[in-house]
Amino acid sequence: MSKIIRAASVGNEKQNADCVITIEPGNGGIELDFTSTVEIQYGDAMKEAIFDELSKYGITDAKLTVVDRGAIDPVLRARMEAVIKRGMEG
Amino acid sequence: MIDKVVGSISEVIKKAGLKDGMTISFHHHLRNGDYLLNMVLDEAAKQGIKDLTLHASSIFECHEPLIEHIKNGVVTQIMCNYMSKTVGSAIASGIMEKPVIFRSHGSRPGDICNGKTHIDIAFIGAPTSDVMGNCTGKRGKTRFGSMGYAMADAEHADTVVVITDNLVEYPMLGASITEDFVDYVVEVESIGDPEGIMSGTTAITRDPVRLRMAQMAVKCIEAAGLLEDGMSFQTGAGGATLAVSVYLKERMLKKGVVGSFIVGGITSYSVDLQQSGCFKALLDVQSFDTGAAADLETNPNHIEVSGRQYASAVGKSSCMTRLDCAMLGATEIDVDFNVNVHTDSTGNIMGGSGGHTDIAEQCRMAVIIAPLFRNRLPIILDHVRVISTQGQYVDVLITEKGVAVNENVVKENRVKDLKAKFIAAGIPVVDIHELKKMAEEICGIPKSAPKGDRVVAEVLGHRGEHVDYIYNVPRS
Description:
A: alpha+beta; Ribosomal Protein S5, domain 2; B: alpha/beta; Glutaconate Coenzyme A-transferase; 2 domains; 10-stranded mixed sheet; 8-stranded mixed sheet; 26 strands; globular
């Protein structure tokens, strides 16, 4: 199991089709704050991708904020991977 | 001697006899810098007037105060051709009992001229007017260029009020609207914010995807056999469509083709095409930028046309009757080529036909340029949320992954055998269902947003006929 030991953030908040993701050490579980311009159309699919990435790295304890402006799946997953790796760094 | 000059908007509202239940009209050449509509409605509210029908050619972000006037019952119905996001979302949320009536830039003057819509008082914003109401948009500190959309209002309203911030002595020469239609002239400090009225010269997009689509559009025009002497052309001022002008100029100069006219909203790029000898004339119903407005004043081959001459079906003919090809946008398009330019994917109103419907229905080849998806939302759907322009008038869709040809176009003047002509020219023709699938492979299939059961707006077409309804966005 991996651990998020510090706060990290990725993404460009002014860029359409991108998402800004912030990760912090959690309080004993996954806490997700998710907003998206395409929440109605793709909210469920995006949340699934987010949890899928977390589980790939064995993250079970983190506070996550995702502010999405229409990122496609590969972008969302790449941002997730980057923010998790940064949060895990010593 | 008649004295038409009145000291204030408050006074002119009384003199013109504005009463509960009347219809008042506005034109949108001051665009997002317009002060007129807010000034008049604020004053009407102050005088306790209720139940007005607002007949405005377009509603912009600067008209946000309108929402309060709707809630307070000052305005109880709206008719327009375009409505931007803030007021549009309020309407979609259901703040108004009577549905908004959306017309096009052609059917609005059409329905005014044939008497279907009656205007009690028309308010006309004029960057320069003389004391008798001879006025123009070509001169003055709030210069906006063509006054085309205001002309039907001036000719048919019971009472016409010109509001100006540059009152000059009689006679002002070269008027766009003349004194014989005008009842009152009011001088105010300013009719609009120049920043919002005119964009500077709009920069051409540098997005390679959009540029590629623009290049493809020029190839399609040529393959259709339209890139010949005497061709006529129309393009919008946004995104990829503006870039088409640049590539078209290159190709026309190289081939030595001299076109006939460019019509519509005129930009600096249209002016450049005319001045480079690619087109003989500019027919201007609305000048989009400072370059176009300045050129309208000085260039004898650049003329102002009324909304009725521009695109209406009630005249004996219109500029559209002789239009070869047009570049149009879409927020959504479906597999039957129906186009939505009224709402976003959740149903919030954020636009309108403008001239879209008139152009598509009348021109020989209507081309929609749109990327496969924007911010993850696929543009091609099974069914558009709202039909703004019917698919039977849309000839071609250009995307970054290929060109779809509509084989069910009903226009008599359409260019025939487009698909075969495009394939022969090496254009990547792809079935629209295939294009839809490509987008869904990248984005996933979108869940559709819920639709309410209350009609908040009705969309009318080129001849003022019913096309579709817009329903409210339910509260989540």
